[in-house]
Amino acid sequence: MMSGPADRGRGIDAVRHSEMGEMDLRVRALESVLVDKGYVDPAALDELIDTYETRIGPRNGASVVARAWADAKYRDWLLSDATAAIAWLGYTGRQSEHMVAVENTPHRHNLVVCTLCSCYPWAVLGLPPTWYKSAQYRSRAVRDPRGVLAEFGVTLPSGTDIRVWDSTAEVRYLVVPMRPAGSEGLNEEQLAALVTRDSMIGTGLARRPEGLDP
Amino acid sequence: MSGDDYLAHADLGGQRGHGPIKPESGYEPWHAAWEPRIFAVQLSMGATGVWNLDMTRSARETLPDYDQRSYYEIWFGALLKQLEGNGLASADEVAAGRSLRPPIPLPRIVRAPDVAALLAHGAPTERPATTEPRFTVGQAVRTIAGPIPHHTRLPGYTQGKRAVIERVHGVHVFADANATGQGERPQWLYTVVFRGDELWPDAEPGLTVSIDAWEPYLEAA
Hints:
The complex is a heterodimer of chains A (214) and B (221). Chain A folds into two domains: 11-54; 57-201, Alpha-Beta Complex (Nitrile Hydratase, Chain A). Helix content of chain A is 46%, strand content 11%. Chain A has helices at residues 11-19, 22-36, 42-55, 58-70, 72-80, 82-88, 122-125, 130-133, 135-140, 145-151, 188-192, 197-201, and strands spanning 98-103, 108-113, 161-166, 171-176. In chain A, the strands form two sheets. In chain A, strands 1-4 form a two-stranded parallel sheet. In chain A, strands 2-3 form a two-stranded parallel ribbon. Chain B has 221 residues and is an alpha+beta fold. Chain B has helices at residues 34-46, 53-61, 71-85, 91-96, 115-121, 175-178, 196-199; strands at 126-127, 140-143, 162-172, 187-195, 208-214, 218-220. In chain B, helix 1 (34-46) packs across helix 3 and helix 2 crosses helix 3 (71-85). Chain B is globular, with a radius of gyration of 20 Å. Strand 3 (161-166) of chain A pairs parallel with strand 5 (208-214) of chain B.
């Protein structure tokens, strides 16, 4: 993650040097000042990082979608009160305090963006990918969504209208992608494996089950 | 922050010239060793209660070199500004890498055992309703025209445009007031929907775009 192929074969010193750039030094200095003053607890910082590396991520959202696909009552609950339905599966809190789930259909495809910053439903999707935070995505998603989708390899039928949700307040949006053909009879765990992160933002579609032609 | 000199650089919706997107699959929250550290420091300092998230967004969007910075470089720059602005730390201390002055008491300090509960609870913005909502689902509205000389969550591309109320979300902390130190001043919040061709001359057929808009952003159309 931190050392790319260019660092290989140049020895550990080269790797360490490349990792200790200006920002590493400045952030380390800032953290030292704040720890020194007792404003932050280093153990709490480690706990925060570990949470978003290992316990919160797109698998949470995938289990929500899989449950909605498998259970019509849960789907109805999710679409009418997403905050409660998602909390019932154990996912709550920061940057997901007020959730709305929006369902893709053959007639409507939903796409989520935050043009003003990078608001994103952390509790179900984890932290956003770089492209979601980029000027490219934020500027274009509301104006040329079909062009944006093409760059993700997604082509929608001409009869599918696009709704873009610009996350301007503290409501966070989760897209429920269409359940793929050929997924009949799969259990929830198998269904969840078909749900990609991008399909829950709207820049992708759910995977088709393995063994089926694309 | 507010005033005639308020210049926000984060309002990107509809801007031309930013080029193609670089998709990445996989869940990789960080791309450099310092990114998780500034992420955690920011969350931890945000939870002290010295400032609120709307103030943080304002501090970020007014960084003069916003468009030159990576995402977490924006976080870093805004955090420095907020620490200095609140007298918690100063540039000479960051340059020295150690505290040069005594700390000031904070409302709260986050410890490791607090983290799980802190994240699970988050910071809900809904407040009890003390008024009736002015608008109802299906009603035609028009957003207020800009420019808005302070932090706002009404994107420029949606200012002065016709829309329809789609959903009423209850009463929520009003970002524009909360960011400028006027307190929460909770307001009714609505999802409002714009036709694509109300926003863009070259809109694709069938496009609709929605935002979440507090009542002061809206007038009856």
